[in-house]
User: Which sequence fits this backbone?
C-alpha cells in the first residue's frame, strides 16, 4: 500500500484475540483518532463501515471466532489518508470468488456484502494471495 511521504499523526499496531467486543473497542479508538483529525461525517461513516466489515471478516470468517486465534491490526492516519492492514490466522479466501450480491440470484444470500462494501467505501483495497490479509486506504474526501 501507499506509504505517503507526509508524517502520520496517529498510528496503532495491535494484536487481539478473535472477539467482536475487542474489535468494537478498537474501532472506537480508531474512530476517535479520525474524528480528532476533523474528517467529514461522510468519511467517518465510510471508515466506520469498512472497519466493521474488515474486522468482522477477520474475527468471524477468518478465525471462526476462535479466541485462541489472533487478529493483527496496523493503522496509520494523517490529515488526508488512513492506511490499514488486517491479518487473521485463517485459511483465507478468494475475494473475487464471492458472488456479487447485486445480482438478482444473489440478493437473498446473506453473505458477500462485506467485500462489496469494503471495495466501495475504501479508496484502495488489496488482499494477499492467500486471502487472510486485507490492506485498505481511505483518502479524505472534499466533504
Assistant:
Amino acid at each position: 500500500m501507499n506509504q505517503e511521504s507526509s508524517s502520520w499523526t496517529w498510528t496503532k499496531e495491535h494484536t487481539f484475540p478473535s472477539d467482536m467486543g475487542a474489535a468494537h473497542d478498537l474501532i472506537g479508538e480508531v474512530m476517535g483518532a479520525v474524528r480528532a483529525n476533523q474528517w467529514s461525517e461522510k468519511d467517518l461513516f465510510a471508515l466506520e463501515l469498512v472497519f466493521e466489515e474488515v474486522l468482522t471478516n477477520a474475527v468471524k470468517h477468518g478465525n471462526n471466532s476462535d479466541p485462541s486465534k489472533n487478529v493483527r491490526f496496523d493503522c496509520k492516519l494523517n490529515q488526508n489518508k488512513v492506511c490499514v492492514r488486517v491479518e487473521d490466522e485463517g485459511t483465507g479466501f478468494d475475494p473475487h470468488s464471492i458472488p456479487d450480491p447485486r445480482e438478482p440470484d444473489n440478493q437473498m444470500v446473506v453473505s458477500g456484502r462485506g467485500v462489496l462494501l469494503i471495495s466501495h467505501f475504501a479508496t484502495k483495497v488489496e488482499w494477499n494471495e492467500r486471502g487472510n490479509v486485507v490492506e485498505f486506504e481511505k483518502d479524505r474526501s472534499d466533504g
